[in-house]
Amino acid sequence: MKPPPFAYARAATLDEALALVAEAGDEAKFLAGGQSLLPLLAYRLARPTHLVDIGRLPGLDRIEPAGGGLTIGGLVRHADLERSAALTGPWRAIREAAAQIGHLPIRVRGTFGGSIAHADPAAELPVVATALDAVFVLRSVTGTRTVPAADLFTGPFMTVIEPPEALVEIGFPAPPPGLRSVFEEFTARSGDFALASAAAAVAPGDDGSARHVRIALGSVGPVPVRAHDAEASLEGAALTPDTVAAAARLAADGIEPGEDAFARPAFRRDLVAALVGRALTRLMNEGDRG
Amino acid sequence: MTGIIGGDVHRDANAPLLAGTAQYAADLRRDGEVHVRLVRSPVAHARITGIDVSEAAAHPGVVAVLTADDLPDVRIPIRLPLFETPEANRFLQPPLAREVVRYVGEPIAAVVATDPYLAEDAAELVDIDLDELPPVTGIADAEAAEPIHPAAGTNVVGTVPLRHGDVDAAFAAADIVVRERFRMHRHTAVPMETRGLLAEVDEITDRLTLWGGAKVKHSVRQALAGMLGIDAERIRVAEVNVGGGFGVRGETYPEDFLVAFLALRLRRPVKWVEDRAEHFVATNHAREQEHELEIAATADGRLLAFRDRAVADHGGYVRSQGILPELLPAQQIAGPYRWEAFAVEATGVITNRTPVGTYRGPGMTEVTFVRERLLDMLAARVGADPAELRRRNLIPPEAMPFTFAMDEGSAVPGLTYESGDYPAALDALLDAAGYDGLRREVAERRAGGECAGIGLAAYIEIGAIGPFEEARVVPDRAGGFTVHVATGSLGQGAETVFAQIVADALRVRVEDVRVDFSDTDEIPMGFGAFASRSTPIAGNAALLAARDLRAKAAEALGADPDDVEFGAGLVRAGGASLPVGKVGEGRARFDKPHPTFSFGGALSLVTVDRATGRVRVQRHVVMHDVGRAVNPALVRGQLAGAASQGIGGALLEELLYDAQGQPLSTTFGDYRMPTASELPEIEVVVVEHRPPESNPLGAKGAGEAGMVATPAAVANAVADALGLEVTRLPLTPDRVRSLLRDAGR
Questions:
Q1: Where are the beta strands (DSSP E) in B492-580?
Q2: Largest alpha-carbon pair distance within chain B?
Q3: β-strands B62-67, B596-608: how paired?
Q4: Residue A177: count of CB within 10 angstroms of its CB
C-alpha cells in the first residue's frame, strides 16, 4: 500500500496548475483534498506520473448566489457545505448530502469538485448535482466549457472530463419559486459510502400540487440516475401518502442495480423504495411550511 | 495493603500508549535495515509453472529476491501437541509456496530492498506463471473436491468425535426433537495495528533477535529454531508495544520465518510491516463452520440429548493452531446444560482460502450461536420463556464439580466444570437487564408498531488452559520489584494486573512493581497470552513467586513469612533487617493440567427497521463469572471490548469470497467493523464465584468472555423481533431484508 513513484508540484494559481497539468501529459492528475485519490495511489489502482496540487489555490472555495442560482467553487470542502447557512430551501439537499460524506476529517479535506470528478457511483454529491440540474465548468489551458450533470458521468469513476481539464466550478440554475430539496441515504455504518441514496426536489404549483419534481438516485448503477417514472407520477399531483408510496415503488422498479455480494439487487430496490419514500414524505410533511 | 486486589487500579504502565510514545514494530529502526515485500498469489488455486525474478532483482535498491527454491524445505509447525495429529501435519504451510498456491494472498516470493517503496515497486516486477486449478471455495464442496494437497489424498483434515451417554436411547425417549442447520460465517480479528517484525543478527554473539513477537513468543522461538535448524538459545523473541492481538497476532506465520531467515542470510536487519490490504488475506481468518444440530427434549422442555455434525474450514493450510477449528467447537457445544447424552462429530476441511486460526472466543462463540439459537426454537415449541427454559436445564451448583465422562474413542476423556453457580449467575444477568420489565416493554413497543426483540444466551468458556507458566519476582536496589512472566502484553492491561498481584502479596505499592513480558531470555519457557489464561495461569505463577520471595526473606531473617515487610530496599521482620538483594529472587511455576471452564451469558435488546433491514442493538448486557476480579475496571473493559467485537461479528463483519476464490472484503470499506455509532453502551455484570484452592489467586479467565454469547444473543433478539428464524450470520441489512422479503413482508 505504498504508491508507485510520481512527480509532485504545487501550483500557486489556477493558470499555473492548468499549465503544469497540460505540460505533464495524459497521466497527470490534479490533487485537491486527496480523500479518494490517495487511497487509489496506495492500492496502486491509479498510477499518475504527475500530481499537481491545487488544494490551496485561491478563489475556488466560495459559495455564492449567482443570478437567482448558485455557484460553488470546485475546492469548497464538504465541511464548508455542511455548515453553510446559504444552503437552505432549494439547496438544502447539498448540505444534507455533504453532512453524510465519510467522517469529519474526510469532510474537512474532501472537495466538491473532487467528489464530482472522482465519480464514485456511491458518492453523495453527484446525486444531488443530478437532482438539481447542476452545470459543471471545466477549464484547461485551451479554454472553458460547461457540461450539464446529465452528460458528465459516463460510468463508474468515469466522466467526460479530459485530462488537462480542471473542474473549477459547479453552477446551479435559478430554481422555480418555492423549490425545496432533501437528501436521504442508507449506509451499513455511519460514515460509509451509501448502499443507496436519493435526492428529491419539488416546487409547489399554484394549486398546491407538486411541480418540477426531481428524484435522483445514487449507488444503484454505474452513474447517478433520475427516476423519471416516479417524477412523472408526481408532476402535477398532490403529495399524499398514497402518491408518495406509489412514486417510491416506481423509483425502485425503475432501477437495474448490478450483482454485488454486499447489497444484492432486490435489497437495493428495497432501499430505494424506503429512501425515496422518506425523502418525499419529508417534502410532503413540510409542504405547509414552505 | 489490602484492597489492591479487587481495586480499579489505573493502568499507569500503559501511559505511553496514550502519549504516543509507545514503540510498535514499525517504529523500530536499526542501522542498515532492509525491507521485505512479499509477492502474493493473485489466484486461489494454481500450479506455479515458472518464476522469473531477474527484472525485480535488477531494480534499484533491491538486495535480494527469494523464492521457495532458496529456502530449506520446511513447514510451519503446529505449536502444541494437544492441537496436533499426524493427519493435520499433512497440510502444513511452507513459508513460500512450493509448486502450488492454495489461496489468494499466499506468499510466493520475497523481495528485499533498502526502502519499502522500492521493495513494493520491485515486487510488481516478479514474473510468475500460474496454471490455474479449480478452486474449492466453500465448506460444502470440500470433501468431494479434488485434493488441494494431492499428497494427502483428501481435503479432510480429520474428525473430532465426542460421545457421552446413550444418545439413541435419549432420542427415542424424547417427546420433541428440534433440528436445524446453522452457519457461522468467516470473519476475524482486525487489530488496529497490523503485524510487524524486525530481525537482526548480533555479529558478536551470533544470536538472532526477532522483535514484534506477541502472544506465544516461546512457541515462535521453538518453531523458528526447528525451521532454521539452529538452537533455540540462539534466538531471542522480543515483544514491543502491540496495537491489539485478539488471537490472530503472534502465531508463527510465514513472515516470521522469512524475516528471521533473511536476517541470517543477509546479515542485515530485516524488517517487514504488514499493510492493511495484506492483513485481510495474510493474517489468520476464523470462525467459518456449519452445524447440523438436533436436540431431544421432553414436552415440558427438559433437555435430554443432542447430536451435532459440524464442518469447520481451515482454508488452504493447517496453521500453527492445528486442529483447534474442529476441536474447540466439539468441546464446547454441550455448554452449561445437564445433558443425559450427546454425540459430536466435528470435521475440519481444506478450502482455497486464507488459512484460519483462533479469534477471541474461538469455537465457543460459534457453537454458542448454534446451540442457543436452537434452544430458542425449542422454547417456542414447548411454549417456555427462553430464560426459564435455560434456568430449568442449567447444571446446578450442588453438582459441581461436574463431569461429562466421554465414551471410548472420544477426542477427550471428559469435560470437567470445576465450580460456579450457573442459575444464580444467570439470575444476576436477568436482574441487571430487568428481564421481566423488558419483556413487557418490548410487548408494548410492538403494540405501538415497533419491531423490537430480546435475545438471551448462556455459555461455557474454556479458558485458563495450561499446562503451566513460570514467573520470577526480582527485587532491585532502589526498593522496586520486577516481575518476569512469559505471557504477553496485548493491550489487556496485564502489566497492571500482575503488579497488583505481586504488590498485594509483598504488601508494597503497585507502582513499585514493574512487569516485564518483553523477551524469551528472561523466562526460559512459557506458553503465552491466549485462551484467557494470563491472569489465571501466569497470575497464579506471579503470586506464588512473590510468596516464594517472601518465604526466602523469612528464612534469611529467621522469621515467620507473614511477618516479613518489604520496603526501601530492605526486608524486615521484628527488629532484624537485610538488604533485599541478599534474599535473591522469587521463582515459581504454576501448573494447570486441566482448563478452567467458566460460565457466562449475554442479553440483547434490538430494534429492526423493517424497510431497510437495519438492526440496532439498543441494550447489550454481558455477564461472566471471573472467579475473582483482580482489577474490576479491566475486567469490565475486557468484557465490553469483546462484546463490541461480537456485535460486529453478528451484524456487520464478513470475509466474503467470490466463486473463483477471490476475497471481496479486503478494505475497511467492505469489511465493516462497528464504530461507536453502531454500538450501545455495553452493560457488564461481573460474577465472582471463587474456584477451588488449587487456584490460589481464585481467578478464572476474562479476556474472551464478552464475545462468546454476544452473536447468539443478538441473533436470538433479531429472531424474536422478526418472528422469523435466523440460522446464519451476520445479520446485515441485506440479509434481514431478504428474511423479511421471503416471509412476504
A1: 513-516, 565-567, 570-573, 576-579
A2: 85
A3: unpaired
A4: 11
Q: B733 CA to chain A: closest CA distance, Å?
A: 7
Please state, in angstroms and rounded to a whole number, the distance separating the CA atoms of residues B453 and B723. 9
A196 contacts A186 by C-beta, under 8 angstroms: yes
Distance CA A18, CA B18 (A): 44
pLDDT of residue A207: 87
Q: Which residues contact A271 (CB under 8 A, 6 or more apart)?
A: A186, A195, A196, A263, B612, B733
**Ranges of residues in chain B whose predicted pLDDT is under 70:** 1-2
Q: Do A262 and B117 touch (CB under 8 A)?
A: no
Give A56 to chain B, closest Cα distance, Å.
27
User: H-helix or E-strand containing A229?
Assistant: helix A228-234
In this prediction, residue B139 carries a pLDDT of 95
Which residue would you say has higher pLDDT here, B298 or A205?
B298
- Residues of chain B with Cβ-Cβ distance to A270 below 8 Å are 611-613, 737, 741
Is A189 in contact with B741 (Cβ distance < 8 A)?
A: no
| Beta-carbon separation of A261 and B741 below 8 A | no
The β-bridge partners of A256 are none
Q: Give me the pLDDT at residue B48, please.
A: 98
Helix/strand/coil for A137: strand
ipTM for this prediction: 0.95
- Out of B117, B669, B734, name the one closest to residue A193 (CB): B669
CA nearest to B275 within chain A: A1
Angstroms from A30 CA to nearest CA on chain B = 22
Look up residue A189 and give its amino acid: R
Q: Does B117 touch chain A (CB under 8 A)?
A: yes
Residue B2 has a pLDDT of 54
d(CA B618, CA B615): 9
* Bridge partner residues of B209 (DSSP): B200, B236
SS3 state at B147:
coil
CB contact under 8 A, A273 and B613: no
How many angstroms separate the CA atoms of B72 and B64, rounded? 16
d(CA B598, CA B422): 9
- CA distances to A201, B38, B464, B485, B631 from B494, rounded to whole Å, are 57, 34, 15, 10, 10
> Would you give the distance in Å from CA B430 to the centre of its chain?
27
Q: What is the pLDDT, as a whole number, of residue B182?
A: 98
CB contacts < 8 A (A, B)? 67
Contact B738 A267 (CB under 8 A): yes
Nearest-Cα distance to chain B for A103, in Å, is 11
What's the CA gap between A47 and A156, in Å, rounded?
18
With beta carbons under 8 A apart, name residues in chain A contacting B733: 186, 188, 195, 267, 271
Does the N-terminal peptide bond of residue B536 adopt cis geometry, omega within 30 degrees of 0?
A: no
Strand partners, A169: A73, A137
- Closest CA of chain A from B280, distance in Å: 13
- Which chain B residues touch A43 with a CB distance below 8 Å? 277
0.95 surpassed by pTM = yes
Name the packing angle between helices B217-228 and B254-266 (round to 10°).
60
Q: Which of A43, A262, A277 sits opposite B670 (nearest CB)?
A: A262
Phi and psi at residue B563, to the nearest 5°: -90, -5
Long-range contacts, B553-559 (Cβ 8 Å, 24+): B553/B578, B553/B580, B553/B583, B556/B582, B556/B583
Rg (CA), chain B: 26
The DSSP letter of residue B58 is T
Do the chains contact at A189 and B678, CB–CB below 8 Å? Answer: yes
Cross-strand bridge partners of residue B34: B270
Of B120, B612, B677, the CB nearest to A271: B612
Cα B160 to chain center, whole Å? 20
List chain A residues with CB under 8 Å of B734: 262-264, 267
